[in-house]
Design a protein that fits this description.
single chain; alpha+beta; six-stranded antiparallel beta sheet; two-stranded antiparallel sheet; 26% helix
């Protein structure tokens, strides 16, 4: 279906994420190049990047996209918050608000329909928000 066929509210959200995909294109291409050289997939369980954090082996509903971006998808409809684990031995920045958190903790984050929880590892910087 065309992105506008779902109605105006859905169209605005889909449009936002299509623009995000384009802003992240250089990062995605960089990750694909790394994959072709190392074999490590760009989308991977968090324990791959944080093997010394025992909790990272238990987290089943988050993933790293490259080494810079932690993604915590919303898997249930109609929820308002979700728990997100931020792996230890790093700092994490909420990609939408720039709030910084220490790793090794669980957060309860709001999950409005138009915002997937995304966290940047350490000093990573990616063009998540429109400028």
């Amino acid at each position: 279906n065309e992105v506008w066929s779902f109605g105006e509210p859905a169209y605005q959200i889909i449009r936002k994420y299509m623009a995000l995909r384009e802003r992240l294109r250089p990062y995605v291409m960089q990750q694909m190049a790394k994959t072709s050289k190392t074999g490590i997939p760009p989308m991977r369980p968090i324990f791959v990047d944080f093997p010394s954090d025992p909790v990272s082996y238990q987290v089943e509903d988050e993933y790293m996209f490259g080494s810079a971006l932690l993604v915590a998808p919303v898997l249930d409809a109609d929820i308002k918050t979700r728990s997100v684990y931020l792996p230890a031995n790093s700092t994490w920045k909420d990609a939408w608000t720039d709030q910084v958190y220490e790793g090794g903790q669980w957060l309860s984050v709001e999950v409005p329909l138009d915002r997937i929880p995304l966290f940047l590892n350490g000093d990573s910087s990616l063009p998540i928000r429109e400028v």
